[in-house]
Amino acid sequence: MTATTPTPAIGRPLPRVDGRPKTTGTARYSADISLPGLTHAVLLGAAIARGRITAIDATEALGAPGVLAVLTHENLPRVAAQPPLLPSLAGGPSPGQTFCPMQDDRIHYAGQHIAVVVADTYERALYAARLVHVRYREEEPVAVLDQGRDQAYVPEKIFGGLIPGSSARGDVDAGLERAEVRVEATYTFAPNHQNPLETSATTALWEGGRLFLYDATQGPAATQHTVSVMLGVPHADIRVFSHYVGGSFGSKASTWNHPLLAALAARHVGRPVRLALTREQMFTSCGHREEQEHRIALGADRDGRLTALRHHKLSLTSHFDDWAETSLEAPAQVYACPAHEGVYRLVRGNTMTPTFMRCPGEGSGMFALESALDELAARLDIDPLELRLRNHADRDPASGKPWSSHGLRECYERGAERIGWHRRVAGRPEREGPWTIGLGMASAVYPIVPPSNPQRARARIYADGSAVAQAATAEFGTGAATAMAQVLADALGLPVERCRFEGGDTDLPNVASAVGSTGASMVGSAVHLAAVALRDQLIGRAVADERSPLHGADPGAVTLADGRMVLRDDPGTGESYAELLTRTFQPDAEAYGSFGPPEGEPSAAMITLGAHFVEVAVDDELGRVRVRRMAGAFAPGRVLNARTAKGQLMSGMLWGMSQALLEATHMDAATGRWANPSLGDYLIPVHADTPEVTVDLIETEDDIVNPLGVKGVGEIGQSGTAAAIANAIHHATGRRIRKLPMTVEDTL
Hints:
The protein is of the alpha+beta class. The protein is about 25% helix and about 25% strand. It contains 17 helices and 32 strands.
């Protein structure tokens, strides 16, 4: 490894490079791709939640102007294979569910795709879809937990087979028995849907036996792998583009059915096909956060030190997959509790398989745990922050290993200072006219998932002195393209203005889907290693070149400055990359980098931590809750871009507020249909709801987690936010609310 001089690239709060094209409308998304002969597909969804199709008549639709085809279970080709359910971070095929529609006449959930209508315009396809007549034999659905509670079971595995259905450490029964104080409570959660601004869409084109897909996805490679398996088409014959993605939050993390259906429709009509989901179809086509119930039993001694935690979760899944958010794992690591038991129980219902939704599992699990801790603090008459400090985990309570880095105490200190926690007095909230003011806090936690297969990137430098890093990952709003250019600039010693990142194309080096806050870690590490390999390659060539001022120098004595390779002890001696390439008649040079998976067991436990502090005002007469201030402090290791990191964390905090007070998808238990599948009825916050938000980054050095020492910030901003708000409402009103969302009816 050669010596380097740190550049000002990493950590700088640079504006996002995709900001201008997105705000000026020049960015082209998957549904903007215009191809010669483009046709349009519209999906028809099942009107019932359970039963069979007894007849489907497309005669009238086929006779409508411009209609090219109507595909149903009666004429759609059968898939070659259905890949197993694997989380998209695994890097292979990643179907959203192990069920493919339109393969038979069976209906498993309302909105299930039962027909694809293709026409020469979108309007004609939409009109013709209304002319497809369907008759059903309807059966009574299981649509909510209470309808199937008596049939609940403990699965062997959840989450694509990666997480056991139950786990334990220590003797929980004994810990609860000897506890001097116990808290037992049940917390319930409404289903949620992601609702990114861009609905999911795929444009499909076949050319000479090759399939080209323009897909709105977090993982172009996952789409490629999944469609390859299902169509029986070699990977090399499928290319997926995903240059601009208008948000995802988990709805585009897995590969759902529309890319496959778009490909089959395009092959059937012999022309390119664009298939874009409507807003209502987003509620029935791309997964959701499932309805769930958490039961907590918490034991502690009189000083507040935990003796045991029992955490059981009950949730609704589909008939074909054992899916549950991983709500029990990370909360079990936050505090020094000697005994823990976590059990998942599932109810099979008439729903599609749930999926990732931002902060998948930690958002719900930490609401239950941090609310219960607040209840424990109230019973013991201990300040909630002090209670958490008394249970601070100096080592991982699950493995006993030291942390690779931590920083939670510093997060507590910074957040408490920001919110003015010193003025909080239990049972004595402040008053402002009709408003009662409350303060609440909660810890935040998010796991770190190492890669399960090699993550690859390519770094290339040109003779003009500019450089590019390339990897197949998509830019879906996280600022990855900006941060990766900074990583490249840092490793090559170039000004960041001379560096750029290219992604969103499966012909580029393969990386897994950037889910679970792994993008900065996986892609960043691969880019860093590729750039380091390129840097070392060029330095090696320079010291071996008789015409170079560096000829004969020790490579370890060469450092970098503004795109120049120079001697550390004699900065005037050296040359630029451009000079070396030009002299040797090379237009460019390149190198690859590969990150993970780790060899053997890691020496330390890895986790990302933070803390939330909030101030709320509750209207005594109307029950309205206004979040006035939010202060979050987080320890995400090394920060690649302070601006994009704070933006990610702030948006997570605001989403936590939305989860706490607004978001719920309501299921009609009788029909098995969502009652509010639109942005007119599904409540989300607007700018007027946004309080004062401060975000503090507590950078910690971590040489174990990955070569860059970064942990990711995409999810942890939401972890614990809802609990902090619930705890603040309790401080203001004395009411303990154990459900999400918390509505006016709950506070009155």
